[in-house]
Amino acid sequence: MASLLLLAVLAPCVVQTYSVNHEQLSKREVPDQAQIISWKSFNVLPNVLPPTLSNASTLFIPPGYDLESLTDKPFHIYDDEFYDVIGTNPTLTLIANAGTNPLFHEATVWYPPTDDMFFAQNAGVPAAGTGLNKSNIIMKISVPEAAAVSHLRNATGSVKIQTVDAPAIKNTNGGTNFQGQILFLAEGQGDNETSNLVLMNPREPYNTTVVLNNYFGRQFNSFDDGAVNPRNGELYFTDSLYGYLQDFRPAPGLRLQIYRYNGDTGAVAAVADGYSLLNGITFSPNGSYAYVTDTGAFAGVWGWNLTRPASIYRYDVKEDGTFENRKLFAYTESGVADGIHTDSKGNVYGGCGDGVHIWNPSGKLIGKIFLGKTSANFQFAGEGRLVILAEEELYYATVAVGGSQYISDV
Ligand SMILES: *[C@@H]1O[C@H](CO)[C@@H](O)[C@H](O)[C@H]1NC(C)=O
Ligand SMILES: *[C@@H]1O[C@H](CO)[C@@H](O)[C@H](O)[C@H]1NC(C)=O
Ligand SMILES: *[C@@H]1O[C@H](CO)[C@@H](O)[C@H](O)[C@H]1NC(C)=O
Ligand SMILES: *[C@@H]1O[C@H](CO)[C@@H](O)[C@H](O)[C@H]1NC(C)=O
Ligand SMILES: *[C@@H]1O[C@H](CO)[C@@H](O)[C@H](O)[C@H]1NC(C)=O
Ligand SMILES: *[C@@H]1O[C@H](CO)[C@@H](O)[C@H](O)[C@H]1NC(C)=O
Ligand SMILES: *[C@@H]1O[C@H](CO)[C@@H](O)[C@H](O)[C@H]1NC(C)=O
């Protein structure tokens, strides 16, 4: 009774405190390259178009904005929590433009000892000429070179894009740090060059060793992405279908699944299924959650199906490394969430149709790094530094948080 009374007395104070705090937060100075996008500004639109005109592949421009004003201040604050992600002076710099060649696609991996960021060209799209005839290429940049021009918005030409000569890796689509080296996930090429996991020496001569290329004699379909769980050190990877949907791999011979691979014993086990089109995978900082994207809404050369997933699912990772309690974590309105990563606070970042979206651990969209075009993937280079791939364009961003990628074995 007494405590109830106390609560009743305290309640108005609590509300009061909250509103004061809220006001203070909202009065936080908006950094130069940031702007607040108020949900209320577009909750009600004068004219809401049908799905044939407004859908996952159209760019949503809230009333009162245009593409120029949205890209001019690319850090979009949807929630006050985003201030802690971007800090007081976030920056976004265009560091390369490859014309029509989608050189900057996926498989972003940071190698701390040399401070290089590796990545791969898009595989299987006509503009790249890759897929069946030609494998995509792996490249790298030196992160300090990008950091040196972060005061500029457009620094194209000032960062060297170096091609990494690793011809054994066919149509790379994913990558991660693994046991002190870099592990790339290759989709494969044609009927006989199957998907495989390839370890690459992150230093010259970039020699490679294939560590997995079959499931009991059967080909994997089309490897997409992988991540190491920080608790057990195993690689969890997705086997999807994009090589087939882009006409350079045969029709699938296995179910679309998430697998785990133990680098010490070589053991492989299926962990989860039930996906339309599997894609990115990552873990929360301490490995207790797994996040997996389903990009079923986009089926390569077969185009879009808007009722299929553009979704991120979350699992609890049990002590024994198995997954349970799959739940819907987020659904993106723009394109699909492709590559995903977490920061050290547990926020989840996804490469989407208009840039990088950032959700807090409860799945609330707190902000975007808006590019006005698709980012399939990106990666933290330690604290406060991000390299963002946007197909023909490559960006460098500075923020106030670091990544949570598992690299303690480097
Ligand atoms: C989505 O909208 C665009 C116009 O912005 C249209 O060209 C396209 O056909 C639509 N896609 C679907 C699947 O309806
Ligand atoms: C592959 O090469 C053949 C023969 O040169 C050509 O006809 C075809 O268009 C190429 N396919 C792609 C996807 O580049
Ligand atoms: C960036 O600078 C390059 C070289 O000066 C120029 O060609 C390009 O149009 C610029 N891009 C943008 C988006 O301003
Ligand atoms: C793939 O391998 C099979 C069996 O060895 C062979 O018959 C076929 O010609 C090969 N295909 C290509 C494109 O090399
Ligand atoms: C690269 O070559 C060195 C020297 O032979 C070897 O020790 C290392 O294991 C190789 N790395 C890979 C990933 O093949
Ligand atoms: C891992 O982090 C989550 C929050 O992200 C926390 O709830 C959980 O207790 C942590 N687990 C361990 C074993 O530290
Ligand atoms: C889109 O996907 C749904 C759900 O899988 C399916 O029922 C429907 O037939 C698909 N539509 C088209 C046009 O393929």
How does this structure look, described?
The chain contains 6 helices and 26 strands. By secondary structure, it is mainly beta. The strands form 6 sheets. Strands 1-2-23-22-21-20 form a 6-stranded mixed beta sheet. A 4-stranded antiparallel beta sheet has the order 3-26-25-24. Strand 21 (348-352) and strand 22 form a beta hairpin. The longest helix has 25 residues, at 2-26. It has a single domain, classed as 6 Propeller (Neuraminidase). Bound molecules: 2-acetamido-2-deoxy-beta-D-glucopyranose (7 copies). One 2-acetamido-2-deoxy-beta-D-glucopyranose binds next to loops.
Biggest sheet strand line-up: 1-2-23-22-21-20
Structural class, by secondary structure, is mainly beta
CATH superfamily: TolB, C-terminal domain
CATH topology-level fold name: Neuraminidase
Helix count from the secondary structure assignment: 6
Helix content: 10-25%
Q: Whole-number average pLDDT?
A: 93
Query: Care to count the β-strands?
Result: 26
Strand content: 35-45%
- Our measurement of the CA-to-CA distance between the termini, rounded to an integer number of angstroms, reads 58 Å
Reported for the largest beta sheet, the result is: 6 strands, mixed
The tally of structural domains comes to 1
Rg on CA atoms, Å = 22 Å
What CATH architecture do you see? 6 Propeller
Apparent shape: globular
Low-confidence stretches: 1-24
